[in-house]
Model the fold of this input.
Amino acid sequence: MSMNNHLSDKQIQHLYWRVGFGISAIDLKKVRTLSKNQITDRLFTESKSSSTLSIFDKVLEKRPANLSPQERKQLSQLRRKKMNELNVLWFQQLIDTRQTLREKMTLFFHDHFAVRIKMPRANVHLNNIIRKHALGNFGDMLLEVSKSPAMLTFLNNRQNRKNHPNENFAREIMELFTLGRDNIYTETDIKEAARAFTGWNFDKNGTFIFRIKQHDYGSKTVLGKTGNFKGEDIIKILLEEKQTAKYITQKLYTYLVNPIINQNHVEQLSKIFYDSNYNLKTLIRSIIKSDWFYNDENIGAKIKSPIELLIGLSRSFEIKYNDPKTVLYLQKKLNQMLFFPPNVAGWPGGKTWIDNSTLMLRLKLPSILLNGGVIPLIDQKKTENMMAKEQLYKKIKSKVEKKVKTTSNWNIFLSTLGSIDETELTKFILQPELSSTAKRVMAAIDITDTKSFVIGLLSLPEYQLC
Amino acid sequence: MKRRDFLKQSVFASGMTLVPSFLKGMEFLSAHQLSGYKNVIIIQLSGGNDGLNSIIPISNDIYHSLRPSIAKKKTETIKITNDLAFNDNLKEIKELYDKGEVSIINNVGYPNPNRSHFRSTDIWQSACDTNQYLHTGWIGRYLDANCQHSYQAIEVDNSLSLAMKGKSINGMAISDPDRLYRTTQEPLFKNLISTTQKEMLDDDNQGYLYKTMLETYSSVSHIHSTSKIYRTTAEYPQNPFAKSLKTISNFVISGLKTRVYYTSLGGFDSHANQLSSQDRLLKIYSKSVGALVSDLKKNNRFKDTLILTFSEFGRRVKQNGSKGTDHGAANNVIVIGGSLKKAGVYNELPNLFDLDKNGDIKYSIDFRSIYATILGNWLEVDDQSILNKKFEKLRFV
Done:
């Protein structure tokens, strides 16, 4: 039982940054009066339903085998175009959604079940499977993901046939999806499991089929169990291992709580997760209802992923992207393109988001999206060169605005803040404590101009954390 | 005033005061130290370059019969031996070859080759086995083990490749040193940097952000002031790849204490009508590298430079249905340098009689042997700990 049922503003913001993309001043006002339990319930209620993505294009159903080289080229261009559309579609849904917890968990499993193929239909399908189960049962998700055309294609299970095994999927399901690298399983387990997955395929409509003739009906031994296993049996065996619950819990802990793992918490949670038969809702509830989730050491401890950074900013300021190319460009430059993870292992995340070029761009990003690239400072030499400065700002702005076509809603942001002073504003915008340096630097910004002050806060390294 | 003296003075006079004193700035080498300071330039031909149409087994019947519409005719090549010829777009490379400054290593690859661009690129860049996933690259691990500063490995690109990522230290990614410098001149960021204190640079994420920022500043201001002083006047072709090589040349000649430079040329994924597209790219490659080498020679830096060119995989021997080639396996690698120990054709030509079950060239040299050679023999560091395994060294340096 939780002893502390009331959350401070900072703790509520912490919760909303981790299970979503931050919280608006209006929502904070609403939620502030609720207890921790009520807020938790509210989060799950908001995410009860699920908004599937859809891109429909009849042309994409054509089978490439019947195509001339010219047609094949056109199809490949169309697929690339549709992949970009799909990317922008989800990006926009992440900005607009009220089902934040569900979308945030979809993002987590989008990374966990990382697939990189230029097949728009298969990608939408997989994304919707993940969304459907994001707050449901992990075992159900695993099974359905494993049988999806996207996964069957990406990890070559279509080429996995009796006497001609392809071990790619069998290896990754153990190494990346369930047990984790070098845990429990051996090379022999992989080879044996691969035999069980033979015959798993899909037809031209994308429906899963079991090709009897390609399946190896012989006996297999996997993780000490022997039988004439099929793919479903292997998945069951993997879920029976407590290590699977531990591996998923650990990964989710670094996503929601802290990149540095507290073994006690993870032990506790993975037992709860295992005993609930892999109920994700139970696991998430246990995390966000715990006392330790709200400890200072967890607040502001995480580096925002590029998507968290972009979506967080876009939601706070209702940023509209007038050119979809901007959306793709920013993700690319920041090294996280939705639907294009670097490889089957997903985005390594954490500190790897940061290199010297991405960091400088990330620091500059808020001013680019919200203020034409200008970070206004008080001029130390007073007003003598005000005119020159104004002109310089104007020049920078028009240059940036030509490239990055966005509009933002400052009015809604500023008006919902109410009358709060700079200390409260700082606490509202930044999750970690300000460094002594940042404090000093902020002192040089004109606090009577709220907009300048906000841009200043957003441009600090502290805003990169949540 | 001598260039180097001027450099030293201007460094201390310029942006350097920005960086807090506890952070030691970039060191410059004296002309004396600079001589013999070895560096490597790594070029990835992205997309999978068709090595067979670059360095061509011209008298091989299988080559001609499997590629009826895309095999190169003798008249379209420049002869190396009776059996081997350069694609005639590699004119500048051939000129270097004749001077004993090129080593061609055939059949380079790895066991159980992966034919995905991304995966195979990861394998080459992280120097791992085909079933292994590493989040660090071989240059990054070189930095971890042997260097203190990011700028000791620079990638001329927008973002940092896996190859350059270490566990505790990353290389730098710079596409346009002037632009990156301008971002660092943002007054708010400058204020942050100048008042950062050592105590803030904890191991936590907040400390890491400030540390990365400081590293960026300490490197960028030096790189900026250095490359402001040395601007090559040599002629380079007008294309982005040549521009990257020119940037690298500026860095090398300026005396940056950088050991490894990394860049890439993309567009080699020639599934259809490959002749025109590949020839165009090879021409860009050859002319640009030719310009780089003559620039380095003019400044007496070529003898300390090694240029490695690779691609994530070669292509299938048999052409496909659309006058192109599909993803293959082993490929040739080109090493260019002013101090090669073994120039020419390093090893046996690809055996087109004995292809793997996909119809691809089998490897006989593991690409990590080339890395081991560069690390051990050229940069003189412990290659085994960086590559996590012992690989047999070659004799090209």
Remarks:
- Strands of chain A lie at 200-202, 208-210, 220-222, 225-227, 320-321, 406-407.
- Chain A touches chain B through 49 residues (CB under 8 Å).
- Chain A has a mean pLDDT of 91.
